[in-house]
């Protein structure tokens, strides 16, 4: 099953190279394909497309994918040099899956240097007074200046990696401090999570948690919970701090225990659920990839290993059997029913490129043992 799903993804991704040219897919619109909403490498999601190209190259060794990924890296080089749409923390998503992937696969020194420059850009978002990485907006932004969001846990590997590559502890120090703050304030006592948390930007005094894309401030946005599962597992990978591993476990238990019958998440765990409630297949795809990372850090005799392994296989199987576009030759996306921003009515039930990326990453890991590009192999 996994092999068939990967090969379907490879065929579709090859077709999409021709469709997209020098543009990047983000989210589909109104049930269409990604071609309805391409961008010239200006969105936070553009690394995911390049990451898919690298995964397809690793599976097939087809130079078509490698050449397309290398062209994308040149686009990311220009984006960083010209500081195009980089006033946010998602520099990790952008450069880990493009330039850093190029270093991991090919040991391309130019790609390594570009990735280190991107890490410096992310490091520049550290706010010493508040002791956090500012999620969105420029320094001093009145609304955003003291805001963190749970997504940032997936950007921290860029800093951890940069510390390993350079021997400079500052990258790691900032990543650890931000991960610890996220663990303290974004993870709630019942193992659910806030999407976002505010602090006074001049003092770091906590103000309170809220949501940006979830159902309401006290609810649990499922994609945010997914970022936490994978992100804390990655912080454990780099630091071996047992608190990060335990936090990943806790978030994973909560996510799995609140899934509906087909083992693929609704867009928020607290939204009233019926036949018309939006799913978020991307949240489940992220969790499948994250569970594979979490399992790598559990002992063979760990009591929870069978529990997590069982859920992983059921969720990934459901994505393949119930949500994938296998058999739909002209489909641009790999899995249906992803949601971007339900309350904002922005692609609430469409293809989303990060969902496709994590779906393919999980398949490659479970079938071929090929991880994503969050750390050196």
From TrEMBL:
Keywords in alphabetical order: Hydrolase
Please name the SUPFAM superfamilies in this protein's record: Six-hairpin glycosidases (SSF48208)
Q: Which residues form the active site?
A: 90 (nucleophile), 151 (proton donor)
Residues engaged in binding substrate: 90, 151, 209, 211, 223, 227
From the UniProt record, give one GO term of the biological process aspect. Answer: polysaccharide catabolic process
Hydrolase recorded as keyword:
yes
Source organism superkingdom:
Bacteria
Q: Which Pfam families match?
A: Glyco_hydro_88 (PF07470)
- GO: which molecular function terms? chondroitin hydrolase activity
| PANTHER family given in the database record | HYDROLASE, PUTATIVE (AFU_ORTHOLOGUE AFUA_7G05090)-RELATED
Q: Which family does it belong to?
A: Belongs to the glycosyl hydrolase 88 family.
What's the protein name?
Glucuronyl hydrolase
Organism of origin: Paenibacillus contaminans
Q: Taxonomically, what lineage is the organism?
A: Bacteria, Bacillati, Bacillota, Bacilli, Bacillales
């Amino acid at each position: 099953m996994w092999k068939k799903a990967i090969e379907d993804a490879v065929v579709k991704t090859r077709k999409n190279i021709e469709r997209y040219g020098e543009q990047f897919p983000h989210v589909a619109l109104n049930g269409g394909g990604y071609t309805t909403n391409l961008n010239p490498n200006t969105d936070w999601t553009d690394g995911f497309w390049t990451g898919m190209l690298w995964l397809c190259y690793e599976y097939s060794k087809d130079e078509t994918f490698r050449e397309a990924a290398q062209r994308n890296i040149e686009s990311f080089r220009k984006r960083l040099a010209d500081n195009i749409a980089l006033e946010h923390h998602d520099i990790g998503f952008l450069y880990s899956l493009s330039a850093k992937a190029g270093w991991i696969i090919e040991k391309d020194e130019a790609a390594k240097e570009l990735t280190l420059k991107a890490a410096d850009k992310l490091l520049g978002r550290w706010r010493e007074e508040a002791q956090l990485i500012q999620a969105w907006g420029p320094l001093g932004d009145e609304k955003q200046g003291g805001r963190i969001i749970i997504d940032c846990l997936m950007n921290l590997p860029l800093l951890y990696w940069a510390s390993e590559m350079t021997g400079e502890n500052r990258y790691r120090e900032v990543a650890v401090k931000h991960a610890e703050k996220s663990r303290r304030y974004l993870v709630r006592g019942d193992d659910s999570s806030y999407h976002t948390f505010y602090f006074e930007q001049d003092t770091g005094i906590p103000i309170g948690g809220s949501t940006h894309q979830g159902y309401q401030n006290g609810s649990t946005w499922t994609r945010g919970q997914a970022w936490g599962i994978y992100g804390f597992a990655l912080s454990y990978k780099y630091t071996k701090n047992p608190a990060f591993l335990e936090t990943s476990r806790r978030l994973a238990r909560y996510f799995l225990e609140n899934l509906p019958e087909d083992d693929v998440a609704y867009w928020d765990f607290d939204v009233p659920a019926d036949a018309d409630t939006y799913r978020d297949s991307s949240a489940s795809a992220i969790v499948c990839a994250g569970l594979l990372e979490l399992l790598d850090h559990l002992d063979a005799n760990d009591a929870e290993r069978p529990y997590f392994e069982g859920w992983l296989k059921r969720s990934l199987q459901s994505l393949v059997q119930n949500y994938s576009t296998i058999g739909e030759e002209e489909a641009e996306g790999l899995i249906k029913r992803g949601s971007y921003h339900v309350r904002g009515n922005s692609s609430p039930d469409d293809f989303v490129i990060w969902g496709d990326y994590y779906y393919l990453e999980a398949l490659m890991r479970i079938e071929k043992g090929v991880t994503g590009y969050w750390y050196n192999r």
